[in-house]
Model the fold of this input.
Amino acid sequence: MSFSNYFNPVADASVTFNGANIHLDTLGSNAVRDAETLNSRAPGVSSSQINDLTFQAKQGEVVLVLGKQSSELFKSIFHGNDNLCYSPEGSVRFKDYEYKQYSKKCPQEIIYNNEQDVHFPYLTVAQTIDFAIECKFKMPLEERINLRNQLLEEFGLSHVLDTFVGNDFVRGVSGGERKRISIIETFISNGSVYLWDNSTKGLDSATALDFLSILRTMADATRSVNLVKISQASDKIVEKFDKILMFTESYQVFYGTVDECLKFFHDDLGIKKDPNDCIIEYLTYILNLKFRDNEQYGSVISDSNTTTSEINTEEDLYHHWINSDIYRNLKSSIGADTPCVATIDAADIKPNFTISAYNQVRSCTRRAFQRIIGDKAYIISQFIAVIVQSLVIGSLFYDVPLTTVGSYSRGSLTFFSLLFFTFLTFADMPSSFQRKPIVKKHTQLYFYDNWVETTATIIYDYFFKTILVIIFSIILYFLAHFQFAADRYFIFLLFLVLYNITVVTLFTLIALFSPTLAISNLVAGILLLAIAVYASYVIYIRDMHPWFVWIAYLNPARYAMEAILTNELFNVRLDCTETIVPRGKTYDDLDFTHRACAWQGATLGNTYVRGQDYLLSALSYKYSHVWRNFGIIIGFLVFYICCSLFISQYITPLYTAENLDRWMFYAKKYIPFISQNSTKSHPIDDIDDSDSINTISSFDTPVLMDEDKEGKDHNIKHYQVERDEEIASQKHVISWKNINYTIGDKLLIDNASGYISSGLTALMGESGAGKTTLLNILSQRTESGVVTGEIMIDGMVLNNGSAFKRSIGFVQQQDVHLDELTVKESLEISCTLRGDGDKKYMDTVSKMLKLPSECMVRDLTPTEKKLLSIGVELVTKPSLLLFLDEPTSGLDSEAAVTIVKFLKKLSMQGQAILCTIHQPSKSVISYFDSIYLLKRGGQCVYFGPMQEACDYFVSKDSSLVYDREFDNPADFIIDTVGKSNAIAEKDEFKSVSNWSDTWINSQERLKTDAAVLDLEEIARNSGVDYTANVWSQPSYMKQLKVITKRQYLCTRRDKAYVIAKYLLNAGAGLFIGFSFWHIKHNILGLQNVIFLCFMSMCVSSPLINQVQDKALISKEVYLAREARSNTYHWSVLILAQNIIEIPLAVTSSTLFFVCCYFCCGVDTAPHIAGVWFLNYIVFAMYYSTFGLWLIYTAPDLQTAAVFVAFFYSFTAAFCGVMQPYSLFPGFWKFMYRVSPYTYFIETFVSLLLHDRPVICDQGEYVPTSVVGQQNCGEFMEAYVEEFGGMIMNKKAKSVCAYCTYVVGDDFLTTENMSYHHRWRNFGLEFVYVGFNFFAMFFGFYFTYVGKYWPTVFKAIGLIIPFRKARKLTKHSS
Done:
């Protein structure tokens, strides 16, 4: 494959730094700390500048970059126009141009790839790569497919072509395969300068070598410049580089070839190299100035007269470098300081994007449809919610009568239709934030512009929502018996669709403008209330407070409401038989000239009300406004679209993690309200905490042990003796035989057998070989698929899974922790719940790992988080086995060595350890006692001593050659058993075609089988039952106490969440209170009281989203780590979350009550206001438990949000506000009694209307005329006696003015409510809270313990046909 045919970087590209002093932005890096932590951990450190950076990376060169601040340097180079600050001017160049000038003109030529792998999980590998190629290359479809297939073949991904990419929560390809997809995307970006920031993290040594080989070929073919940071690499990988750039925290100390580098440090400076160290380890120790105080070097430095005795600081290294011949030659080759070329040559300028904006939009739109088709759970939940809701609501309003009362129902149905889709759109906000990291990566690769993705998302949303609206409208419109006329229906559909897509765009705008989901929920929650209250239905235009009436004119719902309702009612006559005044037996023979309708718009003497009169009189609606409103909504839509595109292009890109960290840093520094954020650890329980852990003030890579320094081992030796005795007292053998693991029709582990007794065992294999899968099987962590075979303890089949899980430790590949805890608190929870609560040993582990105990987890570096993951397991004192999944992945070579040394030390004390590992160096692999080697397909190809592994393969294949002095055994065996990439170097011909069969039939396999039988016999004869020494799990109350304290700390420290909750309650309270300011005592005021209470309950929707977003964090940590290790009972998580969340909901709802209630002019007597407040507190408990029920039942946050919209609108529809109980169809009357909102609404409304006098306005009196010589009192006496109400002037003898109600209780009677039900309702409200509470437990068990959702979706899939999903497998690494 010729890369040069496709990739065309700038000719003669080069990057030159000539004595540049680079000012790095340390606030925006992973090293961000709050002000207190910065001061405590780095006293005196101000090295945010790299001085005298001098090098020139030319076209076609691949440069290895080593240095602690290499990531920050890469980011500065990448964002050259914005973030690269340097002096003197012109000292950094691209070719002969000033770098920042060229970066601003052609930013797409500078490409950055970091260690994070973010992809759309529901796209297949083929779809992901196809999209990238389509965005960067103009070529026919067939050629694009050919290029894609060749790239996938080069990287060994052809076998996962149709597999979902997946992520940590969606099953897909393995982590190593996902990393290769990221690398392919970066290649496809087709730049001139590539910055590879730890891009080989998670790859095995063979795949990493493949990557560098392809990169080498790519650089040679395309003449691009490549700067590469690699944390761990074999010598074969290092040999692929043309040059090495090295710098300490403040100074550059070398730039040149690999040979020049070794000669400079080894020969010229006298820094000797340990034979077991690979080159990158040797150089890393030099950068960390560890060549003097590490005992392995002390024995090999020639003598004290060498120059190493003069090197004590980084300045010493720097001075040796600038006085070297290599430095002088480098300065000479770069040339004298000449002015930069002012004008960029047209030949060096390329357009930012290869394809047109139209094609970008088309590609992104296609991808939007592909990703939603893959997400079955979400699309099914959306369709089910819409179909069920339309059927239910349509049947609730079934065959609405064409009467005056029916006109209210038609208005309610119209309002509900608009409100339902508003809530459904609100539920999509979490997905908007899930897309942001992926969009950011793609825009940085210049696949498309930010506004393009926004446009594509809008197009997809419009299409998908339109389908949902069509389905909804067809069912609802005809069930409710709206006018059966084509023009009426299509106008209804037109405005419902138009309003829906307008609201979709509005909420998209909010999501784009908000930096976090919490802020987005806050803004959207207030906006949701504004849309509902000012749609001109809850409060009529003429009755709106003058301060807020402008909101109605900015509300698209108001115009859609007017258009839809006038379209339905303008040409009809509303029968008023049910509301005629007077009526009854006394008046049956009375002529209609003496009667009138008790309905707005009625006229004396008519038995009907014209629809247009009702609309104009009551709502100020006119049919002539329909098409005017159409234009206005179109205007809103266009405005929202323009704002969304502008914000996505210029505002949203500012919300990077670096910027948010920077803003928070300055906020804590300068804003008193949040500056005092104490992160002091809190004891998790009442155990004495006198043995505190001292904070280590260092930004350096943590060093686990200083074995050469007596007196600095923190009393470790004393503790080691106890551990030796404890572990030595029980030696067990964990063995597995004929293990097979399948998912669907895919066999991932094939007939694997082996054992672990003691020592440090490496589980190795190429990416996708099944290492993590086998580790999960052995640790009893598999959650799907079928496992066959036997796992045995001391030769007896494992039958006590719970005890086994408490006897092992498992360090996951992902570092899953709660960010709001300190290091000490994280260790203490694990020690208390999974160990024996030995705080002294916990302190020892913390000091051995050199973790900053008082530092927040969110502020830890990646290395420190990995060490914390190990510490969390070590403090449990695993007696059987410690599993680790890639503990050194992503760490630099020194950190990797020290971690493995620590594990080796544990194994020498008797701890059995099984550890998967990627890219181990020769020195790292030398610490392992045994190796269990898998090939792709999950087949074992070798299991035995590490020292004998290479000899085994050489003995089976005479064509293999292994050099003990220079070759890395790990690289040799990985390369031997299965390199699949075509570009990989094949120095030897492998005559053995199937190493798994060779192993099965080998004498070594027979010896292994015999050895495990002997070990099992010895273990059984010892008579020690491993379950007897398992630390008993703490009592349920102890677990609850610890987790409740943890949840309290996490919530208290999450100020954004707490402040957003209180602001939302206060803002909503003031908004509703001022909107219903001093409700009048007229008939309209009665209706306003109902809507006041109803809107006070509507605020629960955004509050529920906040609760779910917060609860999801601890739920994911539990599911990802704590549940698998049996840390505590699953019900404890639910109880603890409720114990913390309910008081928070109660106090924040109190703020809502204070802000809202006293603005409305209602009764403030204690027996009214107090009981109203008491019931609202119960309502706060209800919506909190309701939200937690759904988040603990739903498979993900997105689906939970859809459930909220569905159930919320479902229960709200049956509470009697939208549809009077008298008009309920007989079938649905039971739902009126089932809906919890019925009792909340009845209580709230009855309290406010009880004994409230009603004074009708002039327009609310119903005019009637007397018969004969009667006065009004005599004429209306029978009617008033039967139906209530009052006559304004009983002595009048012509026209009588009748007011329908005297007191609010009369109105309550017509609404099927009663003040006397308040305490009955109070008890029923608690019943619903209790139901939610118990439903949480059932839902969590249903979803995550019993795992019944897959069965449900499978059943739904049989009923609802979908395009057959692409094959979904999990290729674990």
About this structure: The first strand starts at residue 15 and ends at 23.
